[in-house]
Amino acid sequence: MTSAKIKGRWRRNKQAGLTFKDFNNPAGSLKGIIAAAYSLGAILSLPFIPIVNDKFGRRWSIFGGSVIMVIGALIQGFSTHGKLTPIPLAMQLLCKRGTNNITVSMYIVARMILGFGIPTCIVSGSSLIGELAYPKERPIMTSLFNVSYFVGQIVAAAICFGTNNIDSDWAWRIPSLLQICPSLLQITFVL
């Protein structure tokens, strides 16, 4: 889920007099860390990418990164303050039980996990395409790999736009859970 979706959802609820109860209307630095957690997770994974690629190969790296992203998307999609799903032990240690901070912490940690998995898939995927593509078609294939990011971004924006009028938690849960789909495709077809 993009930071624009996060900001838009909170702004719309605030204007309508509604409260975004699970996140307790975050502002300032909390909103910033929610948006930056994805990139922070990606930065934390960078030292491990060459080691994983060399030890396990490109396909297993893509598989592992995709599994990490599925876990992150599930945690993000089911972030709650303990009423619907059990709270992981790590989240209980980060926050006081029974407060809205658990939801925000779960959401931030989930975005960091998602960010941790994506660089592995990107680096391994681009290398794998370069290695497997026929030399005559290699420039086209690698260009299509780079352009596919923008196609995914347009699809994600359309999904977020479509869920913008849902007046429940599912307005942000649907896009969060749909992040699983590309990872499941990679898990299915990479090995």
Structural summary, described in words:
The protein is an all-alpha fold. It has a single domain (3-184), classed as MFS general substrate transporter like domains (Growth Hormone, Chain: A, Up-down Bundle), CATH 1.20.1250. The chain contains 9 helices and no strands. The chain has helices at residues 3-15, 29-45, 49-56, 58-77, 89-94, 101-132, 138-163, 170-178, 180-190. Helix 4 runs antiparallel to helix 9. The radius of gyration is 18 Å and the shape is globular. It starts with a helix and ends with a helix. The model is unreliable at 10-20 and 82-93 (pLDDT under 50).
How are the elements arranged and paired?
Elements: H1 3-15, H2 29-45, H3 49-56, H4 58-77, H5 89-94, H6 101-132, H7 138-163, H8 170-178, H9 180-190
CATH topology: Growth Hormone, Chain: A
Q: Helix share of residues? A: over 70%
* Sheet having the most strands: none
Could you state the CATH homologous superfamily? MFS general substrate transporter like domains
Mean pLDDT: 81
The number of helical runs is: 9
Strand residue content: under 5%
Outline the low-pLDDT stretches.
Answer: 10-20, 82-93
Number of domains: 1
Shape: globular
Query: Any idea what the radius of gyration is?
Result: 18 Å
The termini sit apart by 27 Å
| The CATH class | Mainly Alpha
CATH architecture: Up-down Bundle
Q: Report the strand count.
A: 0
| Helix and strand sequence | HHHHHHHHH
Indicate the structural class: mainly alpha
